[in-house]
Design goal:
By secondary structure, the chain is mostly helical. Helix content is 57%, strand content 2%. The protein starts with a strand and ends in a 17-residue tail after the last helix.
Length: 183
């Protein structure tokens, strides 16, 4: 541990950081942690292979870069593991019904779960944002929607990774109930 020392104060050893633990974790452990952020084996392997990262910004930039490079197969793999965003506590039944119907229409049209990043939104805004997003994106053609979904996955991965680094837990924007690929 590197001591932190200010003049006139006793040296205090620095505590291990989440980034430090990630940087030194065994490859398989780092990969599993990354797969909780985005269920693409190639994305997770690429980020894990480029450790150590000097700071959180470098890791988040690597996440973005790797997400931009997802192939159509990588994107399909990641989308297959996504689920519908969870509704905020206290959402009323009609909203749940509307969201379920819109999601069913979306999944039927595009063949994968609807993904949307809810970063920066309050619980009260999340439901309206999800409903508005799913309804507007239903008008996209499949190629256009694949580009939008890839961008949302990139944003979700970055947000989830940031949450792990800064808060030590996922953000709950979407849940992963399926095992990660290769598990």
């Amino acid at each position: 541990m590197t001591p932190t020392h200010l003049p006139g104060r006793p040296a205090i050893p620095s505590l291990p950081t989440i980034l430090g633990a990630f940087n030194t974790a065994p490859q398989d452990d780092a990969r599993k942690l990354l797969l909780d952020c985005l269920r693409s084996l190639r994305w997770a392997d690429r980020i894990a292979a480029h450790r150590p990262y000097p700071d959180a910004d470098a890791l988040l930039a690597a996440s973005d870069e790797a997400a931009y490079d997802l192939t159509p197969a990588d994107l399909s793999e990641a989308l297959a593991a996504e689920t519908l965003p969870t509704l905020p506590d206290g959402s009323y039944g009609a909203a749940y019904t509307a969201l379920s119907a819109a999601h069913a229409a979306y999944e039927s049209r595009f063949g994968h779960a609807f993904v949307i990043c809810l970063e920066g939104l309050s619980a009260g805004e999340a439901l309206d944002h999800v409903l508005e997003g799913i309804r507007s994106r239903l008008t996209n053609d499949p190629d256009e929607e694949r580009v939008v979904a890839a961008e949302e996955l990139r944003r979700l991965a970055k947000e989830r990774l940031g949450d792990l680094l800064f808060r030590g837990a996922g953000n709950g924007a979407t849940s992963h109930t399926r095992p990660a690929p290769g598990e």
